[in-house]
Every structure is written in C-alpha cells, then in structure tokens.
Amino acid sequence: MTPGTRKVAVVGAALADCGRVDDATPYTLHAQAARRALADAGLDRARVDGFASAGLGTLAPVEVAEYLGLRPTWVDSTSVGGSTWEVMAAHAADAIAVGHANAVLLVYGSTARADIRAGRRTGDLSFGARGPLQFEVPYGHTLIAKYAMAARRHMIEYGTTIEQLAQVAVQARANAALNPEAMFRDPVTVDEVAAGPLIADPFTKLHCCLRSDGGAAVLLAAEEYVRDCRTAPVWVLGTGEHVSHATMSEWPDFTVSPAAVSGALAFERAGVRPSEIDFAEIYDAFTYMTLVTLEDLGFCAKGEGGAFVEKGRLLVRGGDLPVNTDGGGLSAQHPGMRGLFLLVEAVRQLRGEAGERQVRTRDGLPPRLGVASGTGGWFCSSGTVVLGRE
Hints:
- By secondary structure, this protein is α/β, with parallel strands linked by helices.
- It contains 12 helices and 11 strands.
- Strand 2 (50-52), helix 2 (62-68) and strand 3 form a beta-alpha-beta unit.
- Helix 6 (162-176) packs across helix 9.
C-alpha cells in the first residue's frame, strides 16, 4: 500500500449452502453467505459502509443491497466474469486504504444448477451475438470451444499432453476428497478422465467444471476494525487486474492468459516472489486454465506447465504447491462466477481453518502466504490477490 494509507484485512469469509440446493433463491444464498461472513467477523451489519456484488438483479448491486438491508456509501458492480471478485477485492482494498470506505462486503449467490433442473434457464453456449461477438457466433464458436482452442494451441506449441491436463482434474478431485463440502469426492484416474464423453476437443467431461448452486461472501475492513473482530486478520498484501481481449481474433497469444499481467502486478505490489507462495487458488472452469495460470503467475516457465502438474505438485497432501485446496470448480462447486470462492478458501487456509485439507508448512504451521487468481470470460480478464497472515 502507498505510505500513509491504511492496511486492509479480510476479517470475515463464509460460504452459503452449496452443491445441490433446490429450495433457495439466489437472493437467499446472497443473504445466507452475507450473514455467515458477518458472524465470522463478529462485526455488526451497521458497520458495513461498502458493498460489491454482480450478476443478480436489474440494478446490481442495488437490489441485493436492499435485500440485505444495507445502505452503502461505496458500491462496486464491476462484472468481468469469473475474475469479478478478485477485481472487486482490489477496488475495495484501494477504497478502504484511502478512507473512502471502512468495511466492504463482497457477496455472490447463484442457483445455476437448480434453475436448469427446473427448466428456468438453459445452459450457456455463448455470451450473445452483439457487438464484436457477432463476428464469431455464426461459426458456432461456443464458450467451451474457445477454451478448448486455447488448450490445443498450448499442446501444439509446447507438447503439452492430454494426460498432463487430466492430471489437473485428478489432483483437484484428490483435494476435494478431503473437503466435506465438496460436491464430488470420489477419486478419478487419468484413464477415467480420458474415457469420458467428449465435450469440445480436447476436453472430455471431467476436464470441465461442474455446475452447482451456492454462494460466498468476504468482508474486508480497515486495520483499526481488526481489534473488534473475532477472527485473525488475513491481510491484503497486493492486487493486480488486467483485461486482454473480447474476441479470439484479438487475442495475441492463446498460450498466455491475462494472469501474466495481473499476477506480476500483484506480486510486485505485495513485495513477494512466486517462490514464496505456500498455496494457490486458481480459477478452473477447465483444466487448461489451471495449467496456463500456473505458468503466467510465475510458478513455472512458459510451456512447462504440463511437466509441472503431472508430478503431483498440486496436491494438499505431498504437493510442492497445493492448488485449489478445496477441490476447485472441477470438483468442489462452481455456481457460475466462482472467483469469490477462491478468496474464501484462501482465507480459511491462512487462518488454519481448513480441516483435513489444511495446508501446512514444513514447520507444521498454517501457510503464511497465498494467492487467489480469477479468470473471466474466455481468458478475457484476470484479477490476482496476494494474501498473508501475521
């Protein structure tokens, strides 16, 4: 942070009910997550003067704030896909640091799975056909196909194999097995990933995230609020954000994600190196996202992601760099824009509250530094947040 400004901490973090939730509305899940995050922090709702939300309501976040009984004097409705919540956290931290807000609540909830089952909506094949996207839609270029094309480019450029990509799914499931809140916990093998139905070449079903219901909330507050909280603070050390492209034709290199920029900014501002990070929470709508983001955050060199992931490095138990410690979007939950879940899991890990899936340093203590990096669209945007405990 700039000298003379306030330090910012995450003081509350919680999930709403997740997985299969057939008897709730998205508003219910927003409220549930918000109440739990405030209870986690031990702060009264009246002290919240900032609010950030996206994806629900005609006037997001106005409708959600009203539903929660909040009247904030600082708001953010930035919507850049899955990276929304890391970008919002960056904005909130900046606002708190300079005194424009004192306590900012970030909240999300979705019944994406239940809505499809009830026939209230269909699956998303694309994001529409207006603006620049009109030049791609006639060719049947679906959302999943865009990720698949990028993965195939990496395979051609660097020799990355489908088995290496499958290892991401296998290790995510192994981490999910340690998480009682994960939607899928049974082990899977590389062969089982390969044998699944093809969704978009080269992705089979288990290369793709699940669809769930769920919600999450995070409360950020100024350093002087920390003494009034019941939880140990998790400090926001550095953030970065970046947007890359909207159409695939404007993406300079399919093998480089916007995390290459947002990550470098976050690490520089935090004053830490990737080698110092104890664990990473990475947006994983598809296995390739994890692999390429690991490269772009600097955990391995460009083109070496396949070799990096195939050796079990992502595992909570025995991994050099535990990644998506809750099981991620591939196995734990993925109710649409999952970026806020990354922050909740990172906070739990840094507090030492993750139960069986708790990451430990070599001295047996909870981790000291973690990173959450969200990706939006089809690698269109990225937000990265470096977090640490005292």
